[in-house]
Write a structure and sequence with these properties.
Distance between the termini of chain A: 20 Å
Shape of chain A: globular
Number of helices of chain B: 11
Largest sheet of chain B: none
Number of strands of chain B: 0
Number of domains of chain B: 1
Radius of gyration of chain A: 23 Å
Strand content of chain B: under 5%
CATH architecture of chain B: Orthogonal Bundle
Order of helices and strands of chain B: HHHHHHHHHHH
Radius of gyration of chain B: 22 Å
Strand order of the largest sheet of chain A: 7-8-9-4-10-11
CATH superfamily of chain B: MetI-like
Largest sheet of chain A: 6 strands, mixed
Oligomer: heterodimer
CATH class of chain B: Mainly Alpha
Helix content of chain B: 55-70%
Structural class of chain A: alpha/beta
């Protein structure tokens, strides 16, 4: 499933960052398999995959810290495969942030300008403007990073990567250590900053919700191979692969039954929210009814697992009422619901 | 709820050992240094008191000896610290066999003790102060490198990668990030080297001869050749004060990765 996948809506413009057939080996183990990928300028792209899928490796290769075993890295159309990191002009936010503990917040942020020979006064002016952009309170600017909260440190790391005006911003799971609420807030902040600055952004994450919510383009990696790339809604609704369908959210993957519109070797993906509770179908709809196996309260809704027509189904029920295990669940599969997954389905 | 108390009692055996070994010998050294020399047999004249030995050390006759000792210690430190840095730096992130081989290379010369390698150096090098200086560097560097290595291995070195990513060339990353973070470790390695260098005996004695007279070699000479135990003790006390001063000085606010 490796191959060349352009991954942005603006297909006509040449991509700002491009990987051509990039492979990477750790000893005898190949971590990345011939990845080809283009990132359009100004887009927010998320690189999503489970642990060990090669996301961080890909990011490190893009940033110039690791060299690919095969293939090319192009930045702005020029071959940067053998360029050192400092020559690529990419801002990288590390997973553990890697803030300089011996420097104050503002000197952390001005670092990228100082090493480029910008006079300290001007570098600090730019640093302060960037700290304002990331909404870090001014009373923290002269503190060392270890005297900031986790969320504030994230903002410093983003500001530091932005301050010198990078060609692109690369973020390696920067919100991993934060609680869910803070992650969502910072994710929204990151998106706001990206829109305001227009900087091309690549976010590495293993959080599907984060990737779906923030990105213009989603790229999914699994076991070092590029599975699919495209707008998040397209990947969520029309995945090419049953594993991806399940990875991006709860999925009913139907391989048998009277409502199956798929050919042999294919399966029908029905998201739980596509099923409608009730038992009065319109023309062409199918009714499903069977005993409830499990009910999971998810805050905004209940996820009800039930059996119908020899198949296990999941339906998302909003509102406070939900059936109990053992009761009969009645649902409608609308005629136009579902997506034929064409590869990798098992009967 | 009261916070759990630190296990300070674990330090008691060490403190007891220090009290047993260091305190009596130091007190005796001070007492000897303040007594008049014995006439005939014996180490000192009981029930006597004098500052003479210390006065002699700070007189025009004694000061060159003290000045040379301090200068020699500083020179040894200036040689040891950069070498320790060069040895410890590559090992800071290595693991497995690389680390084991590195540590072996660092410590193997010490397996022959102190005197053995100096005998070899005595044959290899001409007699003189520079040879004594080289010998002391040879003796001290592995220990200073170990002290520095322990500090360096406690630092998250992705900061160097971050510095490169922000546009720093490799030398800029080392100079602006690596060296400042290594500061406390370099300071400790320097303290070790200076403390040791001030008390240098074997190198100057074996490789320099009379030209490289230090407080430690003169102390030995006064005690064992001249039987002037009180003078030797005064030199010992001065050495003790110098070395203690070296170890006690510490820039305020330095912790690992946190610099003023």
């Amino acid at each position: 499933m490796n191959g060349s996948v352009p991954c942005s809506a603006a297909e006509d413009a040449p991509p700002l960052l491009r990987l051509e057939g990039v492979s990477f080996s750790h000893g005898p183990r190949e971590v990345l398999h011939a990845i080809s990928l283009g990132l359009q300028g100004g887009a927010f792209t998320s690189l999503l995959g489970p642990s060990g899928s090669g996301k961080t490796t890909l990011l490190q290769i893009l940033a110039g810290h690791w060299k690919p075993s095969r293939g090319k890295v192009l930045v702005d159309g020029a071959d940067a495969t053998h360029q050192p990191p400092e020559a690529r002009g990419l801002g990288l936010v590390h997973q553990h942030l890697a803030l300089f503990p011996h420097l104050t917040v503002e000197r952390n942020v001005s670092f990228g300008l100082e090493v480029r020979g910008v006079p300290l006064v001007r570098a600090l002016e730019k640093a302060r403007a960037t700290l304002e952009l990331v909404a870090l309170p001014a009373d923290t600017w002269r503190r060392p990073p270890d005297r900031l909260s986790g969320g504030q440190r994230q903002r410093v790391a983003i500001a530091r990567a932005l301050a010198f005006g990078p060609r692109a911003l690369l973020l390696d799971e920067p919100f991993t250590a934060l609680d869910r609420g803070l992650r969502q807030r910072l994710g929204a902040e990151l998106r706001r900053i990206q829109r305001e600055t227009g900087v091309t952004t690549l976010l590495v994450t293993h959080d599907q919700q984060e990737a779906l919510a923030l990105s213009d383009t989603l790229v999914v990696l699994r076991e070092g191979r590029l599975l699919q790339a495209g707008p998040p809604a397209e990947l969520y609704q029309r995945p090419l692969d049953p594993w991806l369908a399940g990875f991006l959210g709860e999925a009913n993957l139907v391989t048998t039954g009277r409502y199956l519109r798929a050919d042999k070797g294919e399966c029908l993906l029905v998201r739980p929210e596509e099923l409608v509770p009730g038992d009065q179908p319109d023309c062409g709809d199918h009714t499903l009814h069977g005993p409830v196996r499990e009910v999971v309260f998810r805050g905004a809704d209940h996820l009800v697992t039930f059996e119908a027509d020899g198949q296990v189904w999941k339906i998302a029920l909003t509102g406070s009422a939900a059936p109990r295990p053992g009761e009969i669940m009645r649902a409608i599969l609308p005629a136009n619901a579902g997506w034929n997954v064409t590869r990798g389905c098992r009967p | 709820m009261r916070p759990a108390r630190a296990n300070g009692w674990l330090a008691w055996p060490a403190l007891a050992l220090v009290a047993l070994l260091v305190v009596p010998s130091t007190l005796m050294l001070v007492r000897l240094s303040l007594c008049q020399a014995a006439r005939g047999a014996g180490f000192y004249l009981a029930d006597s008191f004098t500052w003479d030995h210390f006065t002699r050390l700070v007189s025009p006759e004694g000061l060159p000896l003290v000045a040379f000792t301090v200068a020699f210690g500083l020179a040894v430190t200036a040689g040891v610290v950069p070498l320790a840095w060069l040895l410890a730096w590559p090992l800071r992130t290595s693991g497995g066999m690389g680390l084991i081989l590195g540590l072996l290379a660092l410590l193997a010369p010490r397996l022959a003790g102190m005197l053995g390698p100096l005998v070899a150096l005595r044959v290899l090098l001409p007699r003189g102060v520079v040879s004594a200086w080289l010998a002391e560097i040879f003796l001290i560097t592995p220990y200073a490198a170990l002290v520095l290595l322990v500090h360096l291995r406690g630092i998250d070195w992705t900061v160097l990668q971050a510095a490169r990513g922000l546009g720093a060339r490799s030398w800029q990353a080392v100079a602006r990030v690596g060296l400042p973070l290594a500061g406390p470790g370099l300071w400790l390695a320097g303290q070790l080297a200076l403390g040791w260098g001030l008390g240098a005996f074997l190198g100057p004695d074996i490789l320099a001869g009379p030209a490289g007279r230090t407080l430690a070699t003169d102390l030995h000479h006064q005690a064992f050749d001249n039987s002037r135990w009180s003078m030797a003790a005064a030199e010992g006390v001065l050495l003790l004060v110098l070395v203690a001063a070296v170890y006690l000085v510490r820039p305020s606010g330095w912790t690992r990765g946190n610099h003023p």
